[in-house]
């Protein structure tokens, strides 16, 4: 296997065949026949053989594609990768721990600096990969629900996205613990390392908040799918009763239809009108109107109708329960108008459905994490059963509390 000895040679090769690499990257999701790209290399198959020898292309039985490493490099650099790389973050974290151990045991200053450079490199890598993973996860969530037409695949993909979200949250929290609790990073004397750690902490904090929003979006999408199953199940049940001629005797369907006054959906009726050619030639207003209609029809785009696939009977027998969502932003707005601490508000708030004590405690933690910038965290604490919690107030309520305490003094 041939290889490039210099970066200049590799960059020159990529630039020389830039049109070929660009075409292969654009069609990376399709099978490409070798004959299709021959015009890009002057119909010279030896050039393709040379690029394949250097592992820039992959050739197999008349088909050609970019090498997997080169394709991954393009996707990551252009931020168009559709894969969530959780293991990449874990690998960088493991390398940081190894080099940190080497750094602390090394006595020579120049070698210590080399280990420190590697630590900075992996910290920057975690920062970049984390941002890209969160962006990819959000994109995959929306794209799966809006574009996937097969019902079973859509539900399975959303469940897979949820598992990826949970795995990503776990590894992000692992990195966060290392950066915050490790004495090596807390007492770092290197100015560049301190700046990298500061940026990484901000990225991790923003990523956790984004993952909470993504989780709420996934739950909402799964709830919509579940409701759709219930509607379709009722429709199929009515169809079965109608086919067996039980619909009239065993249901009140016909009485319900008679009382329904909603307008039925009908297709718009078109009318054909023959215009006088002589009038069209002589009247300028009619000519302008025809040109306007023609331009409108010319620019009109027709969209294909997305039809979901057939729903299997197994989907209707599933006993999986989808978690109900609570609008945290609406709950926050109500709390901002209250003159009480967050924990008391959550424990006493009347929700549309019954909420257990453990669910209310988790809701308190989520609100405190998500809207940290809009709340005031005091040094005071209180107890609920065996649980000690911090007293958190909205901004206005905290100011009133300070004023009242000063007046009492």
**Count of separate DSSP helical elements:** 19
Unreliable spans are 301-308, 318-324, 398-403, 405-409
The helix-and-strand class reads mainly alpha
Strand proportion, as a percent range, falls in 5-15%
What would the average pLDDT be, to the nearest integer? 80
Descriptive account of the structure:
The structure is a single chain. The protein is mainly alpha-helical. It is 67% helix and 6% strand. It has 19 helices and four strands. It has helices at residues 7-16, 18-26, 34-37, 45-53, 68-78, 86-105, 109-147, 151-181, 183-186, 191-243, 247-250, 253-259, 277-282, 284-299, 313-317, 328-336, 342-348, 357-370, 395-408, and strands spanning 57-60, 63-66, 375-384, 387-394. The strands form two sheets. It has a two-stranded antiparallel ribbon with strand order 1-2. A two-stranded antiparallel sheet has the order 3-4. A hairpin with a 2-residue loop joins β1 and β2 (63-66). α7 (109-147) runs parallel beside α10. The longest helix has 53 residues, at 191-243.
Short structural description:
The protein has helices at 7-16, 18-26, 34-37, 45-53, 68-78, 86-105, 109-147, 151-181, 183-186, 191-243, 247-250, 253-259, 277-282, 284-299, 313-317, 328-336, 342-348, 357-370, 395-408, and strands at 57-60, 63-66, 375-384, 387-394.
């Amino acid at each position: 296997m041939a290889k490039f000895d210099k970066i200049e040679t590799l960059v020159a090769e990529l630039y020389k065949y830039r049109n070929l690499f660009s075409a292969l990257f654009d069609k990376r999701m399709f099978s490409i026949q070798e004959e299709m790209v021959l015009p890009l290399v002057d119909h010279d198959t030896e050039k393709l053989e040379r690029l394949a020898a250097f592992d820039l292309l992959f050739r197999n039985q008349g088909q050609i594609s970019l090498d997997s490493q080169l394709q991954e490099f393009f996707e990551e650099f252009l931020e168009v990768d559709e894969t969530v790389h959780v293991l990449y973050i874990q690998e960088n974290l493991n390398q940081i721990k190894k080099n940190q151990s080497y750094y602390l045991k090394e006595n020579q200053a120049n070698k210590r600096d080399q280990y420190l450079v590697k630590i900075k490199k992996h910290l920057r890598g975690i920062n970049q990969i984390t941002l890209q993973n969160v962006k990819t996860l959000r994109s995959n969530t929306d794209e799966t629900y809006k574009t996937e037409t097969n019902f079973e695949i859509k539900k399975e993909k959303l469940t897979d996205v949820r598992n990826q979200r949970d795995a990503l949250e776990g590894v992000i929290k692992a990195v966060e613990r290392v950066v915050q609790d490790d004495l090596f990073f807390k007492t770092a004397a290197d100015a560049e390392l301190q700046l990298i750690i500061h940026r990484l902490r901000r990225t991790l904090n923003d990523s956790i908040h984004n993952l909470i929003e993504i989780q709420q979006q996934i739950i909402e999408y799964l709830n919509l799918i579940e409701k759709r199953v219930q509607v379709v199940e009722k429709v199929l049940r009515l169809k079965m009763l109608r086919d067996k001629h039980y619909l009239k005797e065993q249901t009140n369907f016909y009485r319900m239809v008679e009382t329904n006054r909603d307008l039925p959906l009908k297709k718009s009726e078109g009318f054909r009108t023959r215009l006088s050619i002589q009038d069209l030639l002589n009247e300028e207003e009619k000519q302008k109107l025809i040109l306007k209609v023609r331009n409108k029809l010319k620019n009109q785009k027709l969209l294909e109708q997305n039809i979901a696939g057939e729903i299997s009977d197994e989907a209707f027998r599933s006993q999986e329960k989808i978690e109900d969502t609570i609008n945290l932003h609406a709950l926050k707005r109500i709390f901002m108008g209250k003159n009480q601490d967050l924990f008391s508000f959550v424990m006493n708030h009347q929700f549309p459905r019954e909420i257990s004590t453990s669910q209310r405690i988790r809701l308190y933690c989520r609100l405190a994490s998500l809207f940290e910038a809009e709340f005031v965290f005091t040094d005071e604490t209180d107890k609920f059963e065996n649980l000690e919690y911090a007293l958190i107030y909205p901004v206005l309520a905290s100011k009133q509390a300070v004023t009242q305490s000063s007046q009492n003094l």
